[in-house]
Amino acid sequence: MDLGIKGRAALVCAASKGLGRACAVSLAREGVRLTIVARTAGEIERAGREIAADTGATVTPIAADVTTAEGRSKVLAACPDPDILVTNAGGPPPGDFRNWTEADWLKAINANMLTPIALVKATVDGMIARAFGRIVNITSAAVKSPIPVLGLSNGARAGLTGFMAGLARETVRHNVTINNLLPGPFETDRLLRVMGVEAEKAGKGAAGYRREQAALNPAGRFGRPAEFGDACAYLCSAQAGFITGQNLMLDGGAFRSTF
Question: What are the tens digits of pLDDT across the range 100-130?
Answer without folding.
Answer: 999 999 999 999 999 999 999 999 999 999 9
